[in-house]
């Protein structure tokens, strides 16, 4: 899995690693800050792609609960 925190610990001698993931921790905006601060407060660790996937799933589930399946 191409996850930022894991990749910082990996060595790729003589080569490069390319991947596409839907998020990076270096984005800076108010939504990102809310996400990062919430994960830090709840889990006492830095957020990663897996936290984001759970966060987004919860947003979808909340929309379905609040607005119904057509949302």
**Cα distance spanning the termini:** 31 Å
Number of domains: 1
Count helical runs: 3
Helix and strand composition category = mainly alpha
Name the features.
71 residues; mainly alpha; 3 helices
Q: Layout of SSEs?
A:
Blueprint: H1 4-7, H2 30-43, H3 49-67
Notes on the structure:
The chain has 71 residues and is mostly helical. The chain contains three helices and no strands. It has one domain. The protein has helices spanning 4-7, 30-43, 49-67. The radius of gyration is 15 Å and the shape is elongated.
Short note summarizing the structure:
By secondary structure, the protein is mainly alpha-helical.
